[in-house]
Amino acid sequence: MNSREKHEKLKDILRSYESVAIAFSGGVDSTFLLKTARDVLGDKAIAITARSRSFPQRERNDGREFCEREGIRQIFCDTEELKVVSHNPPNRCYLCKNEIITKLKSTLASSDIGFEVKYVAEGTNMDDGDDYRPGHQAVIEHGLKSPLKEAGLYKAEIRELSNELGIKTWDRPSFACLMSRFVYGETITEEKLEMVEKAENLLLDAGFKQVRVRIHGTIARIETLPEDLPKIIEMAQQLSHELKSYGFTYVTLDLSGYRTGSMNETLPRKVLGKE
Known about the structure:
3-stranded mixed β-sheet; Rossmann fold; 2 domains; Alpha-Beta Plaits
């Protein structure tokens, strides 16, 4: 089945929902899902977005602009997952996702939407099974739908279709919860979340497409695409100076480059489900 056929399957899946709230972060996957849901269900497709210190403000602002431009109703809810996972255990993603989904559903239930929202859907796709993702268990437990995965869509296909639809996020780099920048067991604070967000914004504004600033105490470990290593080395002194002004003591460059879930490399194989 090619990408266009999968897109038609996705439309059929969403059409069967009759009404849906999309858990919308403003990223590549949820934007494509929300756009498709809107095209199929009209006003019976709405967006619900968590407001949290653990999600980049940059992405949330872009998501708000998208909804305004498309005329999509967007509901916000405030979440407090930092109170639940500040100790940063290996199952942090599960605890965090459980808190967020609980608040999303509660907000939907108390909002005067004007019609019954029959389903809540989120943006997991076929590529999301390749890494340690305990948060998906919370998605299953709460009964959320994952229509992109059900339609068999991979990230590259979502980008391709988004480009065809004129969705500006089609080539946006992958983002993730800012808590994923912390080594397991290290206390997560609002101050350190702000340090990481400012550091990544600095790199994005400098033209780097895909970056992570992982935090180890007060050490910043920068991950970027291999082809961007020469540029980042050229800017080393400037970047070091700026990141130290944010509160980092040392600034390092990871020679292995950007990869998703690099903090999971420290977890035992048993925790990762590989034994």
